[in-house]
Amino acid sequence: MLQLLTTHATTAARNALALAFGDGVEPPHATPSTVLHDEPHQVLRRFSGPTPSAASSTTAASDATSPTSPVLLVPPLAAPANCFDLRKGQSLAEFLVETGRRTYLVDYGEIGFADRRMGMEDWIDEIIPNAIRRASAAENGAAVDVVAWSIGGTLSLLTAAAHQELPIRSITAVGSPIDYSKLPMLQPWRRVGKLTGGEPVTSVYRLAGGIPGALVRTGFSVTALDRTLTKPAFIARNLLDTDALGKMQAVDRFMSAMPAYPGRFYGQVNGRLIIHNDLARGTLKLGARRIHLADVTVPVLLVAGTTDVITTEAAARAGTSVLTGTSVRFTTTRGSHLGILTGPDARETTWRYLDEFLTAQDPPARQAPGSTHGATAPDSSTRVAAR
Question: What class does CATH assign to 32-212+260-386?
Fold first, then answer.
């Protein structure tokens, strides 16, 4: 008993000191990767990792059954690209590599005052298309499965609609808003914007050249206020649980690294998406240009969080009504905005749905005999909308 108490005391003291004065209870995680293309806001990485075991319960790893299409991870703006590689065991990139998929990531890097003139067109017409073409070229011209989070999914869908010539095989959008009238936190903002034409906000972001990273971090923290308020109690309860503290620390590091929004891009989001709610009607207006979500023709998987306050289930579900040119699978899982992508339960929910969806796109000859991949998971929250 004395030895056990001594061990617990040592663990608690070590964890407390690491959180208060050290670098944390565990070092930052990064799945090994290679930079294939290095250009401002267009860094392309390819992840590498261990060869999957034959006993893996996910996609078979043998050459005869390995998937042929590369996966491109597309982050949102105002969030670090490590959203897909948060922590050992909570890394979608690591999971995809382990299932035998060649996995790529486009990283926008830092956004500063010099980038204030960048708009949605930069992502829809250049950054995301270039990343798709480069990932495809690195895989001998194979079509790419695009997997995106938050507004990264919205931008990916708009990219596919605007550029049907791109080598895209499928799109998965996790927590991606379509109908902004279904976001309760934005309703006061929308009402003020409609009355004022958005001018007060427009003046501020034009003067600042965008939304500074510090303000983005504050906004994200407000949406997780309960987490902030209960953090001291959580630490006290879990001083003996290094793994739990490691999860908390990984989220803290993620939130502290959020970059800024470029001014023009935010102006378009505020005006066209938040105030005018263009996407709920299926068409984004950019000046005289119109991009129609009905022009997306590749299979789409939409994943929404039932407890996500940033992109509500209803806001994401609206995609099933406007993506009328293709088959759309809509599924839900419990979790926060970040949690549905990379939380402790994501492996058994979002990642499993994604693995089944991607495997369903693979040629039958590439699927393992007797595999259940591609079948709808026995979950009442999974629905299919085919149009």
Answer: alpha beta
